[in-house]
Amino acid sequence: MYRSRRDDPVTDREKLANDRFNCSERERAVFESGIKLATIYHQFVGTPVNLNTVEGLEKTISKAIEVQPYVESAKVSIPRSFFPEGSDRYSYVSLTGNMIDAVVVIRLGNTKVTAEMRYDEALQYPLMYISSIE
Amino acid sequence: MYRSRRDDPVTDREKLANDRFNCSERERAVFESGIKLATIYHQFVGTPVNLNTVEGLEKTISKAIEVQPYVESAKVSIPRSFFPEGSDRYSYVSLTGNMIDAVVVIRLGNTKVTAEMRYDEALQYPLMYISSIE
Amino acid sequence: MYRSRRDDPVTDREKLANDRFNCSERERAVFESGIKLATIYHQFVGTPVNLNTVEGLEKTISKAIEVQPYVESAKVSIPRSFFPEGSDRYSYVSLTGNMIDAVVVIRLGNTKVTAEMRYDEALQYPLMYISSIE
Amino acid sequence: MYRSRRDDPVTDREKLANDRFNCSERERAVFESGIKLATIYHQFVGTPVNLNTVEGLEKTISKAIEVQPYVESAKVSIPRSFFPEGSDRYSYVSLTGNMIDAVVVIRLGNTKVTAEMRYDEALQYPLMYISSIE
Fold first, then answer.
1. Cβ atoms within 10 A of the Cβ of C125, count?
2. CA distance C68 to chain A (A)
3. Rounded distance, CA B116 to CA B34, Å?
4. Does B93 reach chain D within 8 Å, measured CB to CB?
């Protein structure tokens, strides 16, 4: 990346951050992908949501992840099957980990990591895993 | 409370909920307003946000509160002055309680309660308080 | 309220807080009880916990509530029946609202409010309610 | 890894989880370390805490991380300098990311990864980074 001036604050802060890491670029990209999936889970689990608000919540979670360093994209979807059809005052749900489908793409230098979170029926567990490193 | 049909699930669930309370309608409305303000604080503090995503986050928080029982409206605003002007990868912030301005209106029967949360300069504390009961 | 010295920081801050409220002492105590129950829910739902760590988590949640203003006591219990007996790496759970039993006692002036949260089988909902005001 | 019986539930679930990953053991260990640091941050930021309860909170956070897969140890410390000396009702703080010092050690097969989170004065940011991979 070209730096026009020595005091460019952007580049300097990124360089400082880089200096803290004792690993390869590839490993750092993998590390960042883990951070992002756990952020989705632990920040938003518990959020009240219903069929009318779920689309907005999906977008807000995606954008909250995309403002973080090195995120190329974050797609979050919450299957509509989790929502009750009733319409009384108690017919909303609290977001749980089992309801979250997420795909996060990290780009750091020449490395692209795709990591995913989704409820695994066989494991009975919302698994976070790495689906590709390029 | 009038119930038109024995199997009405809405009325039955609301009646069940009502039966758990040992207080007046007015007190219950006040109780609900406290629940909603703390939900805003403890669910969303920590969310990554920047100048481009703050409007969406405000709306999502408002809607998450409005799906809960007895909420007439919830307005959340996050002053733009909290955001750094820089544009490097680290120029976003994590939402803190001090950044949240919220006004929640609860309507329960004939009672309307307005409760607010905002950073109090004199107290140096994000105070939650009741501003009116009608 | 009597203030012994003009510069007493405790009394001054509490008086400032009191001045923000447009309601009775009793209503304020009710409001605080709602805040505390929602804090338990929205702060701690999602926490990884197993049979070995649940007792410590219960205590930590109780104490986190007890440091807040006007809390006389906060008792939190998480029934052990929610925990799987297995012992592999995936045999822990994430705390959900349905797992939380809480009793919070607020004392504010001459008012004592007891509020509770617990999963209501009939409602199929973790209900927060006021059980007594004295 | 030796499996004594085909129906061993532990080994089977771990094998299922392993099959989801498209990366090396080393990369997976790095991924898990990122998950754990973000869990600390996004689960616990916002927790009310004071000088009397901070030690218990540190332990509870450590244990919440240690129940998760592949964690050898998690040490969390919250410097006491962040706490005000006052003693009125408002003299507690809400945990922020800047207050958290954490060291998480992941062991997965033959790989040991140490990852840390701490406020970086130069970056003005609570940085999560990998300090060693063995």
1. 21
2. 21
3. 9
4. no
- Per-residue tokens: D6: 């085909």
| Nearby residues of A96 by Cβ (< 8 Å), 6 or more positions away | A45, C94, C96
The two tokens of residue D133 are: 């991979």
Q: Is the distance from CB of A17 to CB of B90 less than 8 angstroms?
A: yes
Question: Token pair of C131, please?
Answer: 């059980």
Burial class (CB in 10 A: 0-12, 13-18, 19+), B121: exposed
Q: What is the ipTM of this complex?
A: 0.88
Give the burial class of D82: count Cβ atoms within 10 A of its Cβ; 0-12 exposed, 13-18 middle, 19 or more buried.
Answer: middle
Question: Which chain A residue's Cα is nearest to C48?
Answer: A42
Secondary structure E strands in chain C? 48-49, 71-77, 93-94, 101-108, 111-120, 125-133
Residue with tokens 């510069």: C7
Q: Contact C34/B34, CB-based, under 8 Å?
A: yes
In whole angstroms, give the CA distance from residue B134 to residue B118.
Answer: 21
**pLDDT tens for each residue of chain B, 134 residues long:** 233 333 444 457 777 778 888 889 999 999 999 999 999 999 999 999 999 999 999 999 999 999 998 999 999 999 999 987 766 666 789 999 999 999 999 999 999 999 999 998 888 889 999 999 99
Query: For residue D115, what are the β-bridge partners?
Result: D104, D130
Does the beta-carbon distance from D53 to C47 stay under 8 Å?
A: no
**Positive/negative CA dihedral, D23, D4, D67, C116:** positive
Task: Tell me how close the Cα of B1 comes to any Cα of chain C, in angstroms.
Answer: 18
SS (H, E, C) D55-118: HHHHHHHHHHHHCCCCEEEEEEECCHHHCCCCCCCCCCEECCHHHCEEEEEEEECCEEEEEEEE
